[in-house]
Amino acid sequence: MPESLPPFLIFYVVALLALPARGILRTVLMLSAPVLGAWCVWQTPEGSYGVLQVLQFELTLHRVDRLATLFGYLFNLAAFIAFVYALHVRDRVQQTASILYAGSALGAVYAGDLITLFVFWEMLALTSVFLVWARRTDRAYRSGMRYLIIQVLSGLLLLGGVIAYAADGNSLSFDYIGLEGFASWLILLAFGIKCAFPFMHNWLTDAYPESTPTGTVFLSAFTTKVAVYALARAFPGTELLVYVGATMATFPIFFAVIENDLRRVLAYSLINQVGFMVVGIGIGTALAINGAVSHAFNDVIFKGLLFMSMGAVLYRTGKINGSELGGLYKTMPKTTVLCIVGAASISAFPLFSGFVSKSMVMSAALANDFHIVWLLLLFASAGVFHHAGIKIPYFAFFAHDSGIRTQEAPTNMLVAMSLAAALCITIGVFPDFLYRLLPYDTGYNPYDATHVLAQTQLLFFSALAFVWLNLRGMYPPELPSTNLDADWLYRRLAPSVIGHTASMVARWDAGMRSSGRLVLVRAAQLVNRHHSPGGFLARTWSTGSAVFWVVAILAVYLLLFAVGDGMALR
Amino acid sequence: MKDEKTYFFDRPENVARLLRVFYGVCIILAVLDFVIHRHVYHAWENLWLFYPIYGFVGCVLLVLVAKWMRTFLMRDESYYEDLERARTDSSGDSRDA
């Protein structure tokens, strides 16, 4: 039964088959996986397939419902675009890791139970870290190590949570969990790490910009969106998430404004966008959930497009810092235009994809009386336009001319970017294509005069602020720098605390050892002095002196006796 | 640089033209606020020019606060690498000793 074929299996098999392949065969094989995968998604009606009995557990490898189908299409689509983008790469490690990684994301989406979810949760970590290491620099190696540790930690928390959850007598099927009891907190924390909740977000801003030009495109598509999917399934309507999401939407934009590495700017803006999704899941109404998952759908495509355009810049110039770039529109005009389409989409300009999904979350926030959150999201919307919509294209392609003269991105990259850009505009103009796939039917229409005018005003006057600050010379210049973030806690504070404690213990230990050794040495010296040849106790005594000492001892004895006796008499 | 073709934004008058168009659109959008009737969900939306002002002020504040954050968050580009190097060097030394 081909329709019950779990999509992850297609990718895993293709990864194996493509290993020895080269040339056209390799291209066909790689692109066949997402095409076949999408066909499977289209063919498979709702239901549970691939049910296995392992020990006393019933595992469901392939559970299909509306939510899973939406993400199924999304991940196949994202994989297809990213494979096209990476076709020029001749690196078996990256090739295999990226196919397995995309397959694992699909595995997690179709997991019908928490154990299967855990397995693919860990597979996501294990396969994606090779995309970071594939850069083959010392920095990338260290960064990948930190990434792997944090991702595996998330997996362990999930496993612990699942065990505790089962021990409480709950079913292991991967459905609504809700925030009740210790086990659910563990599971939420595991999801939260992968979702880049505040203070758990630095694995993303640390590792993504260290990956290869093509690797980052894959990374940006899957891990966080699997986490959003898991949250949408297990914790919809959890109010805490509204505030967590609002924090995620706002704080990264400050870091994005002062960050120099343009792919790190995008990593911060990724957290900002995921923040909108988390708010939507937290609100939990039909409109909000629709907004969250459709925004995830759009974000994968427009954020992928932005990462692709920056990847093309890095690939062609070998540079990615805003301080070293500028004026590239002269030699990479097509990439420039495609990047601007991505920038307009992430900024949620009317007629671009971000607008039709983000506005749902905003409307839901207002409709459910989260007024402060709504204001924060509005600020975040203006901010994302500022740092991702303007800063990225401006500093890479315009600004001051860096004097770099390069050439246009390779054809396969341009094709992949054009596909993504076409999707951004199509979904923006005809949102019904996307709305039809959403879990709920809400009859929402983003294109009324109120929304369009409000959003356009907000964006144009944000742009006016940029222009004004620039003309006044108040806009912070791009500077080569590292900005401290929460990772300072584990990259600077913890090692130095551990280092200090260890060195204190070592010093104390060394002190004890050396004083002990000194006592022993002194004692040995003493014994040695008295017993060695010529020592006091080893001397041969003359009879005269021996008699003298005997008399002396007797005299002392007598004296003591006399004193003791006298005391007794008194 | 041999390639000295003049590109679009190399001419200041083109930049000025673009900015004039941009300012024009901003003014039109501000005027539309008084023309188009909108459905209001939040009391603040009734304020005149709420969205334009919120966007402009929000972004200016964003940039100024971010700039101020640089004063205590900014470190050298190789900050963490230097730390890591210092750490490996010192542990190397203690092993040698």
TrEMBL record, chain A:
GO molecular-function annotation terms? Answer: oxidoreductase activity
- Which stretches are transmembrane? 70-89, 96-112, 147-167, 182-204, 216-234, 240-258, 265-289, 295-315, 335-352, 372-399, 411-430, 450-471, 546-564
Which superkingdom does the taxonomy of this entry point to? Answer: Bacteria
Where in or outside the cell is it found? Cell membrane; Membrane
| Membrane topology (UniProt) | Multi-pass membrane protein
Q: What is its main location?
A: membrane
* InterPro entries in the record: ComplexI-like_HydComp, ND/Mrp_TM
Which keywords belong to this entry?
A: Cell membrane, Membrane, Oxidoreductase, Transmembrane, Transmembrane helix
* Pfam families recorded: Proton_antipo_M
Domain annotation NADH:quinone oxidoreductase/Mrp antiporter transmembrane: ranges: 111-381
Question: Is Cytoplasm given among the entry's keywords?
Answer: no
NCBIfam families, from UniProt? PRK12668.1
- What is this protein's name? Multisubunit sodium/proton antiporter MrpD subunit
Q: Which organism is it from?
A: Chromatocurvus halotolerans
Automatic annotation (TrEMBL), chain B:
Which residue ranges traverse the bilayer?
21-41, 47-66
Q: Which UniProt keywords apply?
A: Membrane, Transmembrane, Transmembrane helix
Its protein name is Uncharacterized protein
